[in-house]
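User: As part of a screening pipeline, I want to sanity-check one entry by hand. Below is the sequence and the SMILES for pyridoxal-5'-phosphate. Please return the complex as structure tokens so I can compare it with the automated output.
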Amino acid sequence: MINIKDNLALIEQQISQSCQQANRTKETVELLAVSKTKPAALIEQAYRCGQRAFGESYVQEAVDKIARLKHLADICWHFIGPIQSNKTRPIAENFSWVHSVDRVKIAQRLNEGRSGQDTPLNVCLQVNISGEASKSGVTVADLPQLAEATANCPYLRLRGLMAIPEKSAPLSSYSKMLELFTRLQQQYPEFDTLSMGMSGDLQPAIANGSTMVRIGSAIFGSREQ
Ligand SMILES: *Cc1c(COP(=O)(O)O)cnc(C)c1O
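Assistant: Here is the complex for your manual check:
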């Protein structure tokens, strides 16, 4: 049996500890509970424990769960998966945040999809920091251009960067992300989010400035492949 309450408490404690080691206050790191493949009932349990931000990776699955959980006031949905260009509209219409924007065309299509809504869509740009092995993410070289194009979209709010350093990635991947983040922060006033760190690498992520950790299996248990 999964005890979501205990798991959340344990993760909060690990976040606290990592913050303390890094000389940061706990309030500077937000916990995103990654609920992909997990049923709506487990999400609701986490919500009852006080968790508000949830991350999903698969559009159809997410849209179904979002509809089922409409009664949960102030729940906040983040899309963190790869984005196909024919899926941008349901993402723009159903989520508050998207972490995985990695090309101009996707930013523009999300912007169009968001135009009917009252609030802009919060966007993080996914950076391919570990190099060629993973396909997702903008290259460091193309990042400035993507940031500029996103900032120019009226229905998007450019909030920061996201990365998934590979398991074998050197620690320098984390500090490189912090460096990119800090540099762009000077240019974009609303840049306040560095989305980095998962169940297995929360500590190095927080040591290197992460402001949002995306935790799945440590809260909801392992996923079926
Ligand atoms: C699945 C996923 C996570 C959560 O991974 P865990 O190892 O289960 O914590 C975080 N970020 C992204 C982008 C994911 O797809």
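Points to compare against the pipeline: The chain has nine helices and eight strands. Strands lie at 30-34, 53-56, 76-79, 97-101, 121-126, 156-162, 193-195, 212-215.
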